[in-house]
Protein backbone atom coordinates (compact mmCIF):
# COMPACT_ATOMS: atom_id res chain seq x y z
CA UNK A 1 0.00 0.00 0.00
CA UNK A 2 2.75 2.46 0.94
CA UNK A 3 4.66 1.72 -2.29
CA UNK A 4 1.58 2.30 -4.44
CA UNK A 5 0.78 5.54 -2.65
CA UNK A 6 4.35 6.73 -3.17
CA UNK A 7 4.20 6.03 -6.92
CA UNK A 8 0.94 7.95 -7.26
CA UNK A 9 2.20 10.81 -5.12
CA UNK A 10 5.42 11.61 -6.98
CA UNK A 11 6.67 12.08 -10.54
CA UNK A 12 7.43 8.70 -12.17
CA UNK A 13 9.40 8.17 -15.39
CA UNK A 14 10.51 5.04 -17.24
CA UNK A 15 13.51 5.71 -19.47
CA UNK A 16 13.01 3.07 -22.16
CA UNK A 17 10.29 1.03 -23.87
CA UNK A 18 9.81 -0.19 -27.45
CA UNK A 19 6.01 -0.29 -27.48
CA UNK A 20 5.23 1.75 -30.57
CA UNK A 21 7.45 -0.28 -32.90
CA UNK A 22 5.39 -3.29 -31.87
CA UNK A 23 2.13 -1.41 -32.43
CA UNK A 24 3.29 -0.43 -35.93
CA UNK A 25 4.56 -3.89 -36.83
CA UNK A 26 1.91 -6.08 -35.20
CA UNK A 27 -1.04 -3.90 -34.24
CA UNK A 28 -2.81 -2.73 -31.13
CA UNK A 29 -4.11 0.48 -29.62
CA UNK A 30 -1.90 2.15 -26.99
CA UNK A 31 -4.74 4.31 -25.68
CA UNK A 32 -7.07 1.36 -25.16
CA UNK A 33 -4.42 -1.11 -24.06
CA UNK A 34 -5.07 -3.64 -26.81
CA UNK A 35 -2.50 -5.71 -28.68
CA UNK A 36 -1.03 -7.51 -25.68
CA UNK A 37 1.87 -5.09 -25.16
CA UNK A 38 3.49 -4.49 -21.78
CA UNK A 39 2.99 -0.73 -21.78
CA UNK A 40 -0.22 1.18 -22.54
CA UNK A 41 -2.01 4.32 -21.45
CA UNK A 42 -4.36 2.44 -19.08
CA UNK A 43 -1.38 0.72 -17.43
CA UNK A 44 0.53 4.00 -17.17
CA UNK A 45 -2.43 5.56 -15.39
CA UNK A 46 -2.91 2.56 -13.10
CA UNK A 47 0.79 2.49 -12.21
CA UNK A 48 1.15 6.23 -11.60
CA UNK A 49 3.66 6.41 -14.48
CA UNK A 50 3.74 10.01 -15.68
CA UNK A 51 6.37 9.98 -18.41
CA UNK A 52 7.39 7.18 -20.73
CA UNK A 53 10.49 7.66 -22.87
CA UNK A 54 9.53 5.80 -26.03
CA UNK A 55 12.33 4.35 -28.16
CA UNK A 56 12.12 4.38 -31.94
CA UNK A 57 14.11 1.28 -32.82
CA UNK A 58 15.02 0.05 -36.30
CA UNK A 59 16.64 -3.34 -36.80
CA UNK A 60 19.92 -4.21 -38.51
CA UNK A 61 17.90 -5.72 -41.36
CA UNK A 62 16.36 -2.28 -41.97
CA UNK A 63 19.64 -0.34 -42.24
CA UNK A 64 19.59 2.25 -45.04
CA UNK A 65 16.53 4.13 -46.30
CA UNK A 66 14.35 1.34 -44.92
CA UNK A 67 15.28 2.39 -41.39
CA UNK A 68 14.09 5.92 -42.10
CA UNK A 69 10.75 4.66 -43.40
CA UNK A 70 10.20 2.51 -40.31
CA UNK A 71 11.21 5.33 -37.97
CA UNK A 72 8.80 7.75 -39.66
CA UNK A 73 6.01 5.18 -39.37
CA UNK A 74 6.65 4.91 -35.63
CA UNK A 75 6.77 8.69 -35.20
CA UNK A 76 3.47 9.01 -37.05
CA UNK A 77 1.84 6.33 -34.88
CA UNK A 78 2.97 8.15 -31.74
CA UNK A 79 1.52 11.44 -32.99
CA UNK A 80 -1.75 9.77 -34.06
CA UNK A 81 -2.04 8.13 -30.65
CA UNK A 82 -1.50 11.41 -28.81
CA UNK A 83 -4.06 13.18 -31.02
CA UNK A 84 -6.60 10.39 -30.42
CA UNK A 85 -6.13 10.45 -26.65
CA UNK A 86 -8.38 13.48 -26.11
CA UNK A 87 -5.75 15.20 -24.00
CA UNK A 88 -5.00 12.23 -21.77
CA UNK A 89 -1.57 11.75 -23.37
CA UNK A 90 0.86 14.55 -24.22
CA UNK A 91 4.06 14.89 -26.22
CA UNK A 92 6.91 16.11 -24.05
CA UNK A 93 9.37 18.05 -26.19
CA UNK A 94 10.40 21.07 -24.10
CA UNK A 95 11.00 22.25 -20.57
CA UNK A 96 7.63 23.99 -20.75
CA UNK A 97 5.72 20.82 -21.64
CA UNK A 98 7.65 18.88 -19.00
CA UNK A 99 6.81 21.52 -16.41
CA UNK A 100 3.15 21.38 -17.42
CA UNK A 101 3.12 17.59 -16.99
CA UNK A 102 4.70 17.97 -13.57
CA UNK A 103 2.20 20.63 -12.51
CA UNK A 104 -0.96 19.09 -13.91
CA UNK A 105 -0.11 15.40 -13.68
CA UNK A 106 -1.28 12.87 -16.23
CA UNK A 107 0.73 10.99 -18.82
CA UNK A 108 3.28 11.99 -21.44
CA UNK A 109 5.60 10.49 -24.05
CA UNK A 110 9.10 11.66 -24.94
CA UNK A 111 10.56 10.27 -28.18
CA UNK A 112 14.07 8.81 -28.38
CA UNK A 113 15.87 7.31 -31.36
CA UNK A 114 17.55 3.98 -30.56
CA UNK A 115 20.28 4.00 -33.17
CA UNK A 116 21.16 6.87 -35.53
CA UNK A 117 20.69 4.76 -38.68
CA UNK A 118 17.45 6.54 -39.78
CA UNK A 119 19.43 9.80 -40.07
CA UNK A 120 21.37 8.21 -42.97
CA UNK A 121 24.52 10.03 -41.96
CA UNK A 122 22.95 13.35 -42.97
CA UNK A 123 22.77 16.25 -40.56
CA UNK A 124 19.70 17.67 -42.31
CA UNK A 125 17.77 14.59 -41.22
CA UNK A 126 18.40 15.48 -37.58
CA UNK A 127 16.46 18.73 -38.12
CA UNK A 128 13.58 16.79 -39.71
CA UNK A 129 13.27 14.41 -36.77
CA UNK A 130 13.70 17.23 -34.27
CA UNK A 131 10.66 18.97 -35.79
CA UNK A 132 8.74 15.71 -35.36
CA UNK A 133 9.50 15.74 -31.64
CA UNK A 134 12.72 13.75 -31.32
CA UNK A 135 14.47 14.75 -28.10
CA UNK A 136 16.99 11.97 -27.35
CA UNK A 137 19.29 9.76 -29.39
CA UNK A 138 21.16 6.55 -28.66
CA UNK A 139 23.86 6.61 -31.33
CA UNK A 140 23.64 2.91 -32.16
CA UNK A 141 22.17 -0.42 -31.21
CA UNK A 142 24.57 -3.35 -30.86
CA UNK A 143 26.05 -2.89 -34.36
CA UNK A 144 28.29 -0.12 -35.68
CA UNK A 145 26.10 2.70 -36.98
CA UNK A 146 27.04 5.66 -39.21
CA UNK A 147 27.59 7.58 -35.95
CA UNK A 148 29.37 5.22 -33.57
CA UNK A 149 30.55 1.75 -32.61
CA UNK A 150 28.10 -0.65 -30.99
CA UNK A 151 28.86 -2.88 -28.03
CA UNK A 152 28.21 -6.04 -30.04
CA UNK A 153 30.23 -5.20 -33.15
CA UNK A 154 33.53 -6.74 -34.18
CA UNK A 155 35.65 -4.74 -34.47
CA UNK A 156 34.11 -2.06 -32.28
CA UNK A 157 34.53 1.48 -33.63
CA UNK A 158 34.64 4.81 -31.85
CA UNK A 159 32.75 7.89 -32.99
CA UNK A 160 32.70 8.69 -36.70
CA UNK A 161 33.07 12.23 -38.03
CA UNK A 162 29.29 12.21 -38.47
CA UNK A 163 28.88 11.09 -34.87
CA UNK A 164 31.08 13.90 -33.58
CA UNK A 165 29.16 16.49 -35.57
CA UNK A 166 25.90 14.92 -34.42
CA UNK A 167 26.82 15.32 -30.75
CA UNK A 168 27.58 19.00 -31.21
CA UNK A 169 24.31 19.63 -33.01
CA UNK A 170 22.28 17.59 -30.51
CA UNK A 171 23.66 19.62 -27.64
CA UNK A 172 22.76 22.86 -29.38
CA UNK A 173 19.20 21.73 -30.14
CA UNK A 174 18.49 20.42 -26.65
CA UNK A 175 18.59 16.70 -27.40
CA UNK A 176 19.69 14.15 -24.83
CA UNK A 177 22.59 11.78 -25.52
CA UNK A 178 21.88 8.15 -24.57
CA UNK A 179 24.96 5.89 -24.35
CA UNK A 180 23.05 2.59 -24.19
CA UNK A 181 24.51 0.00 -26.58
CA UNK A 182 27.69 2.01 -27.25
CA UNK A 183 31.00 0.20 -27.41
CA UNK A 184 33.54 1.29 -24.82
CA UNK A 185 35.64 3.40 -27.21
CA UNK A 186 32.61 5.31 -28.48
CA UNK A 187 31.31 5.70 -24.93
CA UNK A 188 34.54 7.31 -23.74
CA UNK A 189 34.74 9.61 -26.75
CA UNK A 190 31.09 10.66 -26.42
CA UNK A 191 31.52 11.57 -22.76
CA UNK A 192 34.42 13.81 -23.71
CA UNK A 193 32.65 15.58 -26.58
CA UNK A 194 28.99 16.01 -25.63
CA UNK A 195 28.20 19.24 -23.80
CA UNK A 196 25.65 18.46 -21.10
CA UNK A 197 24.36 15.62 -18.92
CA UNK A 198 24.70 12.16 -20.48
CA UNK A 199 22.55 9.11 -19.70
CA UNK A 200 22.43 5.38 -20.22
CA UNK A 201 18.72 4.67 -20.49
CA UNK A 202 18.72 0.89 -19.90
CA UNK A 203 21.62 -1.12 -18.57
CA UNK A 204 22.87 -3.15 -15.61
CA UNK A 205 26.15 -3.69 -13.74
CA UNK A 206 29.17 -5.59 -15.02
CA UNK A 207 30.02 -6.37 -11.41
CA UNK A 208 27.25 -8.97 -11.34
CA UNK A 209 26.87 -9.91 -15.02
CA UNK A 210 29.97 -9.34 -17.18
CA UNK A 211 29.66 -8.19 -20.78
CA UNK A 212 29.95 -5.04 -22.86
CA UNK A 213 26.21 -4.39 -22.72
CA UNK A 214 26.44 -3.77 -18.97
CA UNK A 215 28.35 -0.89 -17.41
CA UNK A 216 31.42 -1.02 -15.22
CA UNK A 217 31.83 1.23 -12.20
CA UNK A 218 34.02 3.75 -14.05
CA UNK A 219 31.36 4.24 -16.73
CA UNK A 220 28.61 4.78 -14.17
CA UNK A 221 30.77 7.28 -12.32
CA UNK A 222 31.50 9.12 -15.58
CA UNK A 223 27.77 9.44 -16.31
CA UNK A 224 27.19 10.81 -12.81
CA UNK A 225 30.03 13.32 -13.16
CA UNK A 226 28.50 14.58 -16.42
CA UNK A 227 25.37 15.46 -14.46
CA UNK A 228 23.51 12.59 -16.08
CA UNK A 229 22.31 9.20 -14.90
CA UNK A 230 22.27 5.44 -15.38
CA UNK A 231 18.92 3.67 -15.54
CA UNK A 232 18.56 0.02 -14.54
CA UNK A 233 16.85 -2.26 -17.04
CA UNK A 234 14.65 -5.29 -16.40
CA UNK A 235 16.13 -7.65 -19.02
CA UNK A 236 16.94 -10.91 -17.15
CA UNK A 237 20.08 -11.83 -19.12
CA UNK A 238 21.68 -8.57 -17.96
CA UNK A 239 20.53 -9.10 -14.36
CA UNK A 240 21.41 -12.73 -13.60
CA UNK A 241 23.75 -15.33 -15.08
CA UNK A 242 21.29 -18.18 -14.51
CA UNK A 243 18.04 -19.12 -12.79
CA UNK A 244 14.90 -17.17 -12.02
CA UNK A 245 14.90 -13.38 -12.06
CA UNK A 246 12.78 -11.11 -9.84
CA UNK A 247 12.60 -7.55 -8.55
CA UNK A 248 15.18 -8.56 -5.93
CA UNK A 249 17.75 -8.97 -8.73
CA UNK A 250 16.82 -5.59 -10.23
CA UNK A 251 17.21 -4.01 -6.81
CA UNK A 252 20.67 -5.59 -6.35
CA UNK A 253 21.87 -3.81 -9.49
CA UNK A 254 20.03 -0.63 -8.52
CA UNK A 255 21.63 -0.60 -5.09
CA UNK A 256 25.11 -1.01 -6.57
CA UNK A 257 24.45 1.81 -9.03
CA UNK A 258 23.55 4.06 -6.11
CA UNK A 259 26.69 3.05 -4.23
CA UNK A 260 28.86 3.96 -7.23
CA UNK A 261 27.07 6.89 -8.91
CA UNK A 262 25.09 8.34 -6.00
CA UNK A 263 21.36 8.59 -5.36
CA UNK A 264 21.02 11.63 -7.65
CA UNK A 265 22.28 9.75 -10.71
CA UNK A 266 20.26 6.53 -10.84
CA UNK A 267 16.89 5.82 -12.46
CA UNK A 268 14.74 3.20 -14.20
CA UNK A 269 14.66 2.15 -17.87
CA UNK A 270 12.58 -1.02 -18.04
CA UNK A 271 12.84 -2.09 -21.73
CA UNK A 272 9.20 -3.16 -21.63
CA UNK A 273 8.11 -4.42 -25.06
CA UNK A 274 11.76 -4.67 -26.08
CA UNK A 275 12.57 -8.09 -24.63
CA UNK A 276 11.00 -11.54 -24.73
CA UNK A 277 11.64 -12.17 -21.04
CA UNK A 278 11.07 -10.08 -17.92
CA UNK A 279 11.49 -10.66 -14.16
CA UNK A 280 8.73 -12.80 -12.65
CA UNK A 281 7.18 -9.87 -10.76
CA UNK A 282 7.99 -7.00 -13.18
CA UNK A 283 5.88 -7.74 -16.25
CA UNK A 284 4.44 -4.27 -16.95
CA UNK A 285 4.31 -0.75 -15.43
CA UNK A 286 1.74 -1.77 -12.80
CA UNK A 287 4.44 -4.02 -11.30
CA UNK A 288 6.78 -1.10 -10.55
CA UNK A 289 5.23 -1.22 -7.10
CA UNK A 290 7.24 -4.40 -6.39
CA UNK A 291 10.54 -2.67 -7.09
CA UNK A 292 9.53 0.22 -4.84
CA UNK A 293 8.71 -2.32 -2.13
CA UNK A 294 12.31 -3.60 -2.36
CA UNK A 295 13.60 -0.03 -1.87
CA UNK A 296 11.39 0.56 1.16
CA UNK A 297 12.29 -2.82 2.68
CA UNK A 298 15.97 -1.82 2.44
CA UNK A 299 15.24 1.32 4.45
CA UNK A 300 15.34 3.87 1.63
CA UNK A 301 13.72 7.19 2.43
CA UNK A 302 10.72 8.27 0.40
CA UNK A 303 12.83 11.14 -0.96
CA UNK A 304 15.43 8.72 -2.29
CA UNK A 305 12.76 6.48 -3.80
CA UNK A 306 11.20 9.50 -5.50
CA UNK A 307 14.54 10.45 -7.06
CA UNK A 308 15.08 7.00 -8.56
CA UNK A 309 11.54 6.43 -9.86
CA UNK A 310 11.42 9.75 -11.68
CA UNK A 311 13.01 12.71 -9.97
CA UNK A 312 16.43 12.15 -11.51
CA UNK A 313 14.96 11.86 -15.03
CA UNK A 314 13.06 15.06 -14.31
CA UNK A 315 16.26 16.87 -13.32
CA UNK A 316 18.23 15.74 -16.39
CA UNK A 317 15.44 16.43 -18.89
CA UNK A 318 14.78 19.79 -17.26
CA UNK A 319 18.42 20.68 -17.89
CA UNK A 320 18.74 19.40 -21.48
CA UNK A 321 15.40 20.00 -23.22
CA UNK A 322 14.83 23.24 -25.13
CA UNK A 323 12.79 25.93 -23.42
- Shape descriptor reads globular
Which CATH architecture is right? Alpha-Beta Barrel
Helix content: 40-55%
The end-to-end span amounts to 37 Å
Strand percent estimate: 5-15%
Q: What is the tally of helical segments? A: 13
Q: Would you identify the CATH H-level superfamily?
A: Metal-dependent hydrolases
CATH class: Alpha Beta
Uncertain runs are none
From N to C, what is the helix and strand string? HEHHEHEHEHEHEHEHEHHEHH
Could you say how many structural domains there are in total? 1
Rg from Cα: 18 Å
Give a short account of the largest sheet.
9 strands, parallel
Average pLDDT rating: 97
- Estimated structural class: alpha/beta
Strand element count: 9
Q: Enter the CATH topology name.
A: TIM Barrel
Write up what this structure looks like.
The protein is α/β, with parallel strands linked by helices and 323 residues long. The chain has a single domain, classed as TIM Barrel, CATH 3.20.20.140. Helices cover 44% and strands 14% of the residues. The chain has 13 helices and nine strands. Strands 1, 2, 3, 4, 5, 6, 7, 8 and 9 form a nine-stranded parallel beta sheet that branches. α6 links the parallel β4 (107-114) and β5. α1 (2-9) packs across α12 (288-297), α2 (19-26) packs across α4 and α11 (247-261) packs across α12. The longest helix has 20 residues, at 65-84. The chain is globular and about 50 Å long. The termini are far apart.
